[in-house]
Structure formats: C-alpha cells, structure tokens
Amino acid sequence: MIYKIYNLLRIKQWLKNLLIFIPLLIEADQLNYEVLISSFYIFFLFSFVTSFIYVVNDWFDREEDSNHPEKKNRPFASKELNGKHAIFSLFSLTLLTVPGLFILGNSFLNSLIALYFLQSILYTLYLKNFSLLEIFIVASGYVYRILIGASIISSFPSTWMIFTIGSASLLIVIVKRKIDITKKPFSELRSSFKNYSNEFLSTSIGILSATTITSYVLFTFSNYAILKFNSELLPFSSIFVFFGVLRYVQLSFKTNVSSDPINLLLKDKQLFITVFLWMVFIFSINFFN
Questions:
Q1: Which of 237, 270, 275, 282 is the residue whose CA sits 20 to 30 A from 161?
Q2: Is residue 106 in a domain?
Q3: What's the rounded Cα separation, in Å, for the pair 69 and 72?
Q4: What is the number of domains present in the chain?
Q5: Which residues span the domain enclosing 187?
Q6: 282 falls within a domain
Q7: Tell me: the pLDDT tens digits for 233-262?
Q8: Among the listed residues 17, 8, 25, the one whose alpha carbon sits nearest the alpha carbon of residue 47
Q9: How many other C-beta atoms lie within 10 A of the C-beta of residue 186?
Q10: Is residue 197 part of a domain?
Q11: What CA–CA distance (Å, rounded) separates 209 from 15?
C-alpha cells in the first residue's frame, strides 16, 4: 500500500521542484542558513501542492490513462486504488500544505503558489482540451518554480533566464507530446493531441531548441550574469546546454523512450551527466570565484 501511495503522489516528479533552488544557485551571495532552511521548507510545501494536483489529475484521467502504454500502471488507472484513497490523500495533503503556507506568511509567494494551483486545476478539468494552450500552461509550471525560488530571496530573475526556462519548458512539453502521439493510435489520443502532426511538433522542436540555446548564451553575456557571477568562464557553460538540448532532441526521435521528462533524465546517462556537470560548473565558478 505504501508503494501505491508513493506512486499516486508521484514523489519522483518532485525532482522538477528542484528548479526552486536555481535562483539561489545563481545568487550565491544571498546564501545563508536561514535562506537555505526556507528554501527546503518551501520545496516540500510546493511538492505537497504538486502531489495534490497529480492526485486530482490522475483521478479524472483514470479512464484515458488505462489505455496509455505507460500511464495504465498509475494507481487509479490500474484500479489498485479507488476514490477513498483519493479523498484520504487529498485531505492529508491539504493538512500538510495550508497551515504551512499560513505560517510562511509570504503573501507574494503564497499568491504565486495559489495561482499555480488554480491554473493547474483548471487545466485538469477543462483547459487541457485546447491544443497549443495546454502546452503553454504545462510549460509555465517550470517558470512558476523559478519565480517561487526567486521570491525566497526577494529577487527577480534575469529576463534572459526567464526566456531560457520558458523556451526550454516548451521544448520539454512538445517533445513529450511528440513521443506520446507516436505511442498511441490516433483514435485513442486526447482531442487536443489530435491537432498535433508529427511535422508540426518536429518543426516546433527545431525552433525551440535554437531559441533555448540562444537565450541561454545571451543570458551568460547579460549585465545581470556579469554582475552575479563576475566570471569570464560563465559563457563556457553554454557547452552543456548545447549538448543537453541536442541530446534531448535526439531522444525525441526514438520510439522506445519514455515521454516523462523525469524518466528521460534519470534513465539517459548522457542527459543526466550533462545536467549534473552544468550544475557543478555553475556552482564552481560562483562559489569559488
């Protein structure tokens, strides 16, 4: 039962929430014990919020998921868990989240989380049926994480950083859609997915790959980055972004890979090592400069 609840809450997907720490990684001068504790506190609070959304989403999508080659193993789709487990999980997550946000007392951060929650619920109930719009909504979730992380240190991220994360997020979602539509018969696709042709998604992947790389390179040369890093080595971190983006695009043309970006990251050694080396590189030039 514990393993089933673990799958229901999608604890593995909490890795996405590590984006909350990116602003702190960049603005190392803001790092102290209090900020670090606050960051972990908010990481877990936000993770509870995302798990709440996953439970709602999986409950409403259980019939559709039961026909998906990967999602059919989700607890509701496989009928391993039922409505009682959904209610219990949602009630428990509410008890863990609401008092924590109240204690936090950060009105701006709470507003961001509330807006993300509302948007995600609307997506689950209705907005996921609109092609293109649903891609932008899902992708915006990654940007929310950056903004939440920045709010912890009362900062606003670089414009180029926002563009980079936004473009990379769109790329991730579109690659996911491309893999999804190749794994299921057209008749079983969600109505919004049926509007995506393989040619359209492949073209979009090309555009967003170039946009992501360009945005990141411009970020490394921006006044913001020069001020925060004070290092001439930062532009060389683009090498990892070039390789990571191209590797991710390469994987999108394979038929035996998961459409879940977290599974892709964890299972593909090249992609995982690239992300890890980028983080080590950024940490090194920031903290040892």
A1: 270
A2: no
A3: 6
A4: 1
A5: 158-289
A6: yes
A7: 899 999 999 999 999 999 888 767 777 788
A8: 17
A9: 8
A10: yes
A11: 22
